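Quick one, tokens below. Sequence please?
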């Protein structure tokens, strides 16, 4: 196990069995985002992306929550000593913060998983939705939450959610802000797996480890194919698939997989 320094106790990171396990660590505040945690999370994504010992990123929360959204008590701190900013300046700042958090997470080169031990609400839900896959404890729940505080939504929630569950259902979840249980979220495809709360952390890590020890280069190309396909023509997708298939076919991963297949054994894509 390799412990990675995040610069704060509010964010923990360790690399184990090729899984980069990132833990939001403010359990007393349901892991709410704030002036320390958010910048640290942005930075750790940059730190981890190109590490050869990382095959998968899993984000989770300490205690009984994933992330409750923004920590209101820390939002910008005191404004008395700060110069007043125009609306345009504030829009630019928030756009940049979003691009470097959920935007960066969505485009993270390797597979990403959100592991929800409990509530994912507001911007915390946005972080979960930005990941490739989501798993949850059976007592977890998801909540858009923005309506409840008179806000319209940020960090990509209104972009991610319609692509996962359809526009009409996404509108319903935003307009009503209904609490969505883990079984309900699983039934509509928002969660890939639901695990018993008692064994959730062990089960979620095993789930991530299986992905992390797969063919990392091929998985990266798969992710690019899938995400690019949402915004391009069939012809462009076929061309990208062809490029990536040729690249994959000449890789060490494919060579090892064919060799293992011929010998009727499981391919060890990563040597210990």
């Amino acid at each position: 196990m390799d412990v990675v320094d995040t610069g704060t106790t509010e964010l923990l990171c360790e690399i184990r069995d090729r899984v980069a396990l990132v833990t939001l660590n403010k359990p007393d505040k349901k892991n709410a985002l704030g002036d320390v945690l958010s910048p640290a999370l942005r930075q750790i994504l940059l730190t981890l992306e190109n590490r050869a010992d990382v095959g998968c990123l899993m984000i989770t929360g300490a205690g009984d929550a994933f992330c409750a959204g923004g920590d209101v008590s820390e939002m910008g701190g005191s404004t008395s000593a700060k110069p007043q900013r125009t609306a345009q300046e504030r829009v630019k700042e928030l756009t940049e913060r979003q691009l470097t958090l959920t935007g960066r997470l969505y485009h993270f080169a390797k597979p990403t998983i959100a592991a929800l031990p409990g509530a994912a609400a507001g911007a915390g839900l946005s972080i979960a939705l930005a990941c490739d896959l989501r798993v949850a404890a059976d007592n977890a729940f998801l909540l858009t939450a923005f309506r409840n505080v008179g806000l319209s939504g940020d960090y990509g929630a209104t972009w991610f959610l319609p692509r996962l569950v359809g526009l009409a259902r996404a509108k319903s979840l935003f307009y009503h802000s209904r609490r969505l249980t883990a079984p309900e979220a699983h039934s509509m495809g928002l969660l890939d797996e639901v695990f018993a709360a008692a064994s959730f952390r062990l089960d979620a890590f095993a789930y991530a480890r299986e992905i992390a020890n797969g063919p990392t280069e091929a998985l990266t190309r798969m992710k690019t194919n899938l995400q690019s396909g949402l915004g391009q023509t069939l012809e462009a997708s076929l061309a990208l698939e062809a490029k990536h298939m040729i690249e994959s076919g000449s890789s060490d991963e494919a060579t090892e997989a064919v060799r293992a297949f011929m010998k009727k054994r499981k391919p060890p894509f990563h040597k210990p």
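The chain has a mean pLDDT of 92. Residues 208 and 230 are 25 Å apart (CA to CA).
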